[in-house]
Amino acid sequence: MDIYNLVSFSGIFILLFILWAVSRFVFGNTTPLNWQVVVWGLAIQLSFAAFLFLVPAGVTLFQGVNDFAVKILETASHGTLFVFGPLALPPGEKGSLGFILAFQGFPTIIFFSALVAVLYYYPVLPFVIRLFARLFTRLMKVSGAEALCTAGNIFVGVESALVVKPHLEKMTRSELGTVLTAGMSTVASNVLALYVFTLRQEFPSIAGHLISASFLSAPAALVTAKILMPETGIPATLGKNVDIHYEKEANLFEAVINGASTGLKVIFSIVALLIAVLGLVALADLFLGMIGDVLGQWTGAEINLSLKQILGALFYPLTLIIGVPFEDAGIISGIIGERIVLTEVASYKDLALVLAENRLIHPRSAVVTAYALCGFAHVASMAIFVGGVSALTPKRTTDISSVAVKALIAATFSCLLTACVAGAFFNETSLLLGKL
């Protein structure tokens, strides 16, 4: 254990205090804090991380999960190679044309969407989701509906709201805020495969870290949501176990077809977002550059302004708080900060580029950053989740949109909290570092 482990551990409580202060003094929440959700949420996170990082059996499990995930990812490439040929060959393999996101990363989403659909059909995932939901409901004093939705978000994305569709109309505003926070604090397993593919060349153990981040972020989402949006009503399913609501396909082939179609829709959504958002950011940078030039003429100094620089400056203190060493904080704060507008896809791609260029001095910086980025905590995702959940319960659209910004803030802090937990236990001699 070194000083940065202590920094990350202290960061857990600093982040929670900042979030409480924002809740109390910015949004005016005077409702007493639900200490049960905070204490048990942190206990679940810390226990899981300690087992994973410190206990030999946990390290072995981590390595096994990582290797298994990579092998599954390799099987996903067979269909891609058949369809796209050399374009699908990853860097390092004979005949590869280099990394091409559209032909190597995106197709994995289709495969994993189909795989998730199969696991829902049998039903493996519903069983696991119920276990986590009952754990959250029993220990954290939250409603069964929001616990179930949070547990579902460990594995799926915006469609997780479907599992609690019958309960959405009667949810309190705090519960609706939790639904949005949980959705933006985690990532869907099909998209997680894209991040693994993007980073595995420079970060061989990334699959295990991202999978563990998905589990750690679920209780973190409940903690941050209930601090920023405390419960003021009485949830209809408080302390009750709620069963999953979903329509099972008629047969396995229908499940595969529907899963693959869902993956294709996800790809189109990501492509549309990246094209639109990256273009708008470039436009914003153009105007910021012009402003910088004018200021430079007035001051006689060279001033280069960009949206990434501004967001990086805003997130710089938080980057230090989660345990990123001072030498790497400037680079990492830009990567974490840009996620709020550029999405985590672009941020993970930038992290991979930084690793490929050996620009980080401390290996722990990459690990902590991987956990901090593992969530849909950005403006575009907020719009998607608000639209998706509102479509399931149109009568609650006003309430859902009213907690959207709070949910985005809570989700951002949830991801940072998960990074702190990982950073508190991680050390640079750990086997979990891989070949980074």
Give the count of helical stretches. 17
Q: What composes the largest sheet?
A: none
Structural class: mainly alpha
Domains (count): 1
Explain this structure to me?
The protein has one domain. Helices cover 73% and strands 0% of the residues. It has 17 helices and no strands. The two termini are 19 Å apart.
What topology does this entry show?
Blueprint: H1 3-26, H2 35-53, H3 56-84, H4 101-121, H5 124-140, H6 144-152, H7 165-168, H8 173-185, H9 189-199, H10 206-228, H11 252-299, H12 307-321, H13 326-356, H14 363-373, H15 379-392, H16 397-402, H17 404-425
Helix pairs in contact: 1-17, 2-3, 2-10, 2-17, 3-4, 3-10, 4-9, 4-11, 5-6, 6-8, 8-10, 8-17, 9-10, 9-13, 10-17, 11-13, 12-13, 13-14, 14-17, 15-17
Offer a concise description of the structure:
The chain has helices at 3-26, 35-53, 56-84, 101-121, 124-140, 144-152, 165-168, 173-185, 189-199, 206-228, 252-299, 307-321, 326-356, 363-373, 379-392, 397-402, 404-425. The chain has 436 residues and is an all-alpha fold.
Keywords:
436 residues; mainly alpha; 0% strand
